[in-house]
Design goal:
Layout lengths: L3 E10 L5 E9 L4 E5 L17 H15 L7 H12 L9 H18 L4 H9 L10 E8 L12 E6 L9 H22 L19 H14 L8 E6 L8 H5 L4 H11 L2 E5 L7 H11 L4 E4 L7 H10 L4 E4 L1 H4 L2 H13 L3 E5 L9 H8 L4 E3 L6 H16 L1
Parallel strand pairs: 4-11, 6-7, 7-8, 8-9, 9-10, 10-11
Antiparallel strand pairs: 1-2, 2-3, 4-5, 5-6
């Protein structure tokens, strides 16, 4: 058993060169853990409050620290509950969800280091996953950026490729999918250059060409997949994150078809297997309608709909609003609450996706988390830019260990 001795905070830069918070938790046995907090461009209304004044966030770490010093670092739920009680608000308005999350994740890593365990194995024990059942998730690659992730005219935010190949070696399933995604990424770059379109990248490492319609983006992906000699659907599919809550008038984008029918037509026409945030975050009725219409063949993913809050996921389960859930720890503010939401989703049979944010740090915590909880997918952006690659490379190393 090791106790928390010191909690230190500092200001660092995220991938958009914005200031963000990093925290070190140092134990009385000399072990320590470090965590940093990302930030999203499109954020859900129900996300935990993020304190954007990082100097104030650092000051809040100093306020919280005395309440956690000398506490057993392995008692993750108790550590998180102390902060939740100290804050006293539903959305972490007093302390800040980013402050609480940085301390929560750093404490977890410090405890794993104290026990001399790889983080993913420690998290698996914390979550209750058998070490025999650990698996590497399938990567989701956002290789065309639109919406708030770029300066082009694309209405939807992300156009992803999703490796669906079974692979030839079960022990190298992830690495095969990663390098297949990289192959399509490079092919797309060549295709864009041939069309005299920009190959500058957006926030998540995907290309941000000056194209105007969602269909144009999808056609580019279909073409790149085909040029690589890869079979669409069978070996590589497409995913879309509409980020509908960030679109002022979704009906104008789908006109003359209403949104649910528009998505039905898209998924019938193209090899699309995933739709993330296709509708507004409070449009529960149409979420249920869309899931009932295409949910047997398409993963309907709630992000802004749920914001990693267990109560909202429970409502979605009851109303059959989606068949998949996106998990972002910074949306809820502590590791314990994140794990509770994951457990709720898994019990209901929802497809589980662990996700990064558009403003990322080099932290690889979510890679370990995705393995520990048996996530189906990890969403970490394009196979480009260091803050994205760090997650994928971490999974390569875990795959080798497993």
């Amino acid at each position: 058993m090791a106790n928390i001795r010191t909690i230190k905070a500092r200001k660092i830069l995220d991938s958009r060169s914005n200031a963000t918070l990093e925290v070190d938790v140092i134990l009385d046995d000399g072990s320590f853990g470090r965590a940093s907090v990302p930030a999203g461009a499109s954020t859900g209304r129900y996300e935990a409050f993020k304190l954007m004044d990082i100097d104030k966030a650092i000051a809040n770490v100093a306020v919280v620290a005395p309440y956690l010093e000398n506490k057993d670092v392995s008692q993750q739920r108790k550590i998180d509950q102390i902060m939740i009680d100290l804050d006293g608000t539903e959305f972490k308005d007093n302390i800040g969800g980013n402050v609480m999350l940085a301390i929560s994740l750093a404490s977890c890593e410090a405890s794993a280091n104290s026990f001399k365990m790889p983080l993913y194995k420690y998290l698996a024990e914390l979550f209750g996953t058998s070490s025999q059942n650990l698996k590497i998730p399938t990567p989701l690659f956002n290789i065309i950026n639109g919406g708030k992730h770029s300066d082009n005219n694309l209405p939807f935010q992300e156009f992803m490729i999703i490796p669906t190949i079974n692979g030839t070696d079960p022990k190298k399933m992830f690495s095969e999918k990663l390098f297949l995604g990289s192959k399509v990424y490079h092919q797309l770059k060549s295709d864009l250059q041939r069309l005299d379109l920009s190959v500058a990248v957006g926030d998540e490492g995907g290309f941000a060409p000056q194209i105007n319609t969602n269909e144009e983006a999808i056609e580019l992906l279909v073409s790149a997949i085909s040029h690589c000699g890869i079979k669409a659907r069978e070996e590589m599919s497409i995913g879309i994150d509409s980020a509908a809550s960030s679109i002022s008038n979704l009906e104008m984008i789908t006109y003359p078809t209403e949104p649910v029918e528009y998505y039905k037509k898209l998924t019938d026409r193209y090899p699309i297997m995933l739709l993330e945030d296709p509708l507004k975050e409070d449009d529960w009725k149409n979420w249920t309608k869309l899931t009932g219409l295409v949910g047997e063949k398409v993963k309907i993913v709630g992000d802004d709909l749920y914001t990693t809050h267990k109560d909202r996921v429970l409502r979605g389960i009851h109303e059959k609003s989606s068949n998949s859930v996106l998990i972002k720890p910074d949306q809820v503010g502590t590791l314990s609450e994140t794990l509770e939401t994951i457990a709720t989703a898994k019990k209901a049979g929802l497809t589980l996706i662990i996700s990064h944010r558009s403003g990322e740090t080099e932290s690889t915590f979510i890679a370990d988390l995705s393995v520990a909880v048996g996530a189906n997918y990890l969403k970490a952006g394009a196979p480009s830019r260091g803050e994205r690659i760090s997650k994928y490379n971490r999974l390569l190393r875990i795959e080798e260990e497993l």
